Amino acid sequence: MIGIFRTNISSVHDKNSVINAISTNFLVQACSVDIEDCDRVLRVDTPETLEEQVIIEFVTRLGFSCHILD
């Protein structure tokens, strides 16, 4: 699965925390957050078959908004 999401992650600290949490809890090949983009794009690349809703709920529990990027 490659998931691309709009978030409100805005600091380097928060970005690193979210990437670390996702990498710890899911098998990921790549995970990044572009805090310079207006949509604060979170990109998660995983060989697992995950529903995008799983990532959305996980990031939301971390205290951030997260929605599928159209």
Quick summary:
With 70 residues, the chain is of the alpha+beta class. The protein has helices at residues 12-25, 52-61; strands spanning 2-7, 30-34, 41-45, 66-68.
Question: If you had to describe this structure to a student in words, what would you say it looks like?
Answer:
This protein is α+β, with helices and mostly antiparallel strands and 70 residues long. The chain has a single domain, classed as Alpha-Beta Plaits (2-Layer Sandwich). It is built from two helices and four strands; from the N terminus they run βαββαβ. The chain has a four-stranded antiparallel beta sheet with strand order 2-3-1-4, with helices on one face. Strand 2 (30-34) and strand 3 (41-45) form a beta hairpin. The longest helix is centred in the first third of the chain and has 14 residues, at 12-25. It starts with a strand and ends with a strand.
Structural key phrases:
70 residues, alpha+beta, Alpha-Beta Plaits, 4 strands, 34% helix, 27% strand, HMA domain-containing protein
Low-confidence stretches: none
Could you describe the largest sheet, including whether it forms a barrel? 4 strands, antiparallel
Counted up, domains total 1
Sequence of secondary-structure elements: EHEEHE
Q: How helical, in percent, are the residues?
A: 25-40%
Q: What is the CATH third-level topology name?
A: Alpha-Beta Plaits
- Tell me the name of the CATH class: Alpha Beta
Protein name: HMA domain-containing protein
Organism: Chitinophaga dinghuensis
